[in-house]
Amino acid sequence: MEKKLRVGILGATGMVGQRFISLLEDHPWFQVVTVAASARSAGKTYEEAVGDRWKMTSPMPEAVKKLVVMNVAEVEKVASTVDFVFSAVDMTKDEIRAIEEAYAKTETPVVSNNSAHRWTPDVPMVIPEINPEHFAVIPFQRKRLGTTRGFVAVKPNCSIQSYTPALTAWKEFEPYEVVATTYQAISGAGKTFKDWPEMAENIIPYIGGEEEKSEQEPLRIWGTLEGGVIVKAKEPVITCQCIRVPVLNGHTAAVFVKFRKKPSKEQLIEKLVSFKGLPQELNLPSAPEQFIQYMEEDNRPQVTLDVDFGKGMGVSIGRLREDTVYDWKFVGLSHNTVRGAAGGAVLCAELLTEQGYITHK
Asked: Which stretches make up the Semialdehyde dehydrogenase NAD-binding domain (predicted)?
């Protein structure tokens, strides 16, 4: 790309906003030119606004330190400075829906990490390796919004990334019933151990709203575009429990599956390791070369060893074995703030750019 696209980060001071900032440092296509946050941060430099709340392990990129934070509510002003925005705002769902559509109506594409628009029928919710064809709903959304360039696209919940790719790879064997338990990192709540000390040596068996997302969002990912809206798939039926565990980064899932067509272990593993999508074929900048890796060791995948596979954009599967009640069971692992949040949104933006949905203003 001759000239980089100008990017704004909405909600730039929060944990996912910070992850966007760190992932976009030295990005070959995108350059962060605008950071926006709440009125209390507006007018300060990004470095001042974040203060001692920088939560990434890598240092704050020099290029953003002196950027003056804009007020995210000043939509026209922010939008005038960028080609598109990533959204990681911390507001109520109604407020998020309203502000993301307001940005879209300024003819500014919005690629969102938020959940507010995940069930808006004409908003694509995409894992780029799995359902890139859902971007074809964007012209219908533009018609509703009255835009020619602006739209909203979202990525799904972080918790489903550790098992949805495997189930997709096994689609031809017709999985129809799934039981999953996810063991979710504290960064999924925007926290570190420093600001959530009570999570050390603790497990909390409840994460608000997470189980419904984990059960329903894969069905929308596997849905079809019909009459200008995405219609969710009917199966596999998924039931899920979501548990918060004392891990900083990395969501693990323990999953049981029933198949209509009975595959062998060798067939299942082969489908995992050979599975790839458009990001791999197009060699997009953030795409992992290997989307899913299978690990033969009994004690893998492990968070400390495997969460950064593919720079945090890959998915690790292990412990695939026959079950006495279900057909097969396995353990999955994905990085919740890279693949599951900011990185997944960056990959969506790369594919949207490659397909001509995001362009220079």
From this structure: 6-138
